[in-house]
Amino acid sequence: MDIEILEALKTPKHQSKVAAQQEEPITHLSASTTPFTPKGKQKRVSYADMVKQDPKDDVSRPSSPTPSGGKKRKTAPVLKANASQSPSKTTKKQPAATSPKTISTVMTGYVIANKDFTRKITVYDILSTWSQLDTLNHLKAWGQVVAIKFKSQQKYVTVTVSIELNQEATKLWNDGAWTAPLGGLPIRWFPANWDLKQRKEREQFQAVIKGVPASVNTATLYPENHAHSILAPIGCKAFKLIQDWDTRKLITYYESWADLNKVIGKPFSLDEFTGDWMMYFTPNLKQRRRNLQKVN
Fold this sequence. Notes:
Residues 1-100 are annotated as: Disordered. The protein is an alpha+beta fold and 296 residues long. It is built from eight helices and 13 strands.
């Protein structure tokens, strides 16, 4: 099976529209699902080239090769102090411009057999250490991928996928599950037509236990049979383990205030550790930066 990785480039101004159209790849599929194809001139890479990627390379970036002759990343110039300046004044280095988020698209060439099982899904919490090939292989557990778009950020990668789900994944989706197993991890998924505000609405009702020991990990909380999870009795829809400075936290998400209120103040045992559930709010990123500046 050939896989095409498409990477959007700017079309030169002097290039005619006809020439640009001739260079654009054919992106029509035999189903109503619209593939995620960026506009403009495209770069094609074969499946073999994708597999040949050196595993020592930084897999946090997409496996699409960078076009030759690309511009080097610019850094802000550093001002040199001259003799006329006061010795008490020190010259500060200007921070280099941050690199933009990388977006790339993969077309698998799969022809949809059953449109009723085909969905467009936005997937959160994919580890940046997974290569694009790793992600595609893991997604086989959900069904057949038609097209997929990767958006690389820092620790995680967000994926938008057009996929023909198998029966097991379709049941989870239709039952309203907030997470699905992918590569042994609980991955949050959303309808692709939801905007950021709609996705954030699932974070309204949260509870937290602080000081969770290192012996409690994702495998402990998310066994292969999810019905046997120690989190099943509390009725949470999703969970996350985070390390916040020197404190380890277990955060759980609920569908409604009524579900959240059932656990607030209740004790919960994890191995030999016992803690009480407390209400939790996702900290505002801007506010956290201000607090860090005050501390520094």
